[in-house]
Amino acid sequence: MQLHLAVIILNYFGFEYSVSCIESVKQSLKSTVFLVDNSANQSEKKNLENTFNNETDIKLIFPSENLGFAAGVNLALREAVAAGYQNFLLLNNDAVLLNDAGDLLAKSFKDHPGSLIAPSIICGENSNTGNYYQKYLGLISSTPYLNGLGSLYYFSGCTLGFDKNVLDKIGYLDETFFFYGEDIEFCYRAQKNNIPLILMEDSLVLHKGSKSAKITSFFYEFHMIRSHFLLCFKIVNNPVSIIISFVSKFLSLSLRALIRSIRHKSFIPIITLLTGAFPLKIRPQIKTYPTENNSRMELVQGKSTLFLFLGMCTLSSLWKTR
User: Fold this and answer.
1) pTM for this one?
2) Do 126 and 25 sit in the same domain of this protein?
3) pLDDT of 123-160, one tens digit each?
4) Which domain holds residue 243?
5) Tell me, what's the pLDDT at 280?
6) Residues in Cβ contact with 203 at an 8 Å cutoff, skipping those fewer than 6 apart
7) What is the DSSP letter of 142?
8) 19 and 153 co-located in one domain
9) Do 34 and 178 belong together in one domain?
10) Cα-flanking dihedrals φ and ψ of residue 178, to 5°?
11) What SS3 string covers 56-68?
12) Are 219 and 283 in contact (CB under 8 A)?
């Protein structure tokens, strides 16, 4: 049993990852790959074009700047919808599909129309079968905290399937999120609209994981903190709960920032805690981590943002004294 899917993959200076991911898709699925290159780099573009330009079932999309995850996915989804596709699979470029993924995914799409579908994802020695997000503490875990109070079950955007009925009902990913958090909000919107979350029992995906995400870069820390703050307003229902969520989450994130600053001997987690509530355009500076030049770049970026934040606080104080 097969199903023609539109597979959405984002690339950001991950050419080798993307090649490996697409090869696994070609071996497993009857599909068309929509590859969005967020690198905005001529060398990366050339590598991708030289490799895939003659592939009729691979559509290359080159935005002029790094759009982030949500906007990049939406760009590809809109092209796929315009081309008439009805079923979609989001797949991280640092993940690969395992054997039999095609038939099993096709069966799930057929058996569960109008649903969010995710397989079990192999991550190292563990398997990810979905996570719980604690709305008031910003904690993510495989089991709910506080007997489920304030916990939201969600699927990772690493591998997520759905059909056009879902898009028609709840829309596309929320582009307010640049990096992290959009999958939580998307699953919240789905559940709010009575769209089932279907977890497949089979482990169909091996997630190698992004090395850069484990380094305390300003980009990572800023967008992680900002996503937690944004979620206070996206997945909490009333003004009182929003205030409680924001305050309690700020306290828990403050502890996190302190621990990470001590562990990594860096002020970046603390700086991003103070600036994460502001809609600053923070983008990764170079493609690899860690390097001495990149560390300097992150430090300069962090100091500049801190000075901006302190300046805004000073101006606000001066204005109040008028």
Assistant:
1) 0.87
2) yes
3) 887 888 999 999 999 999 999 988 888 999 999 999 99
4) 213-320
5) 86
6) 98, 119, 120, 121, 122, 127
7) S
8) yes
9) yes
10) -95, -45
11) CCEEEECCCCCCC
12) yes
Number of neighbours of residue 195 by Cβ within 10 angstroms: 18
Distance CA 31, CA 89 (A): 10
3-state secondary structure of 216: coil
Instruction: Please spell the DSSP secondary structure of 225-283, one letter per residue.
Output: HHHHHHHHHHS--SHHHHHHHHHHHHHHHHHHHHHHHHHHT-SHHHHHHHHTTS-----
Residues 161 and 244 in one domain: no
- 205 with 241, same domain: the answer is no
Structure tokens at 267: 């002020």
Report the domain count for the chain.
Answer: 2
Distance from the Cα of residue 200 to its chain's centroid: 21
| Domain match, 172 and 219 both | no
Pairwise CA distance, residues 187 & 154, whole Å: 5
Q: Examine the fold and report which residue of 183, 209, 235 is the final residue of a domain before the chain moves on.
A: 209
Based on the fold, state whether residues 56 and 140 are members of the same structural domain. yes
Alpha carbon 207 to chain centroid, angstroms: 14
Q: Are residues 126 and 78 in the same domain?
A: yes
Reduced to 3 DSSP states, what percent helix, strand and coil does the chain have, rounded to the nearest 5?
Answer: 50, 20, 30
Nearest Cα neighbor of 233 from 91, 86, 135 is 135
Task: Give 95's strand partners.
Answer: 207
| 106-126 confidence digits (pLDDT tens) | 999 999 999 999 999 998 878
Cβ contact 248:197 at 8 Å: no
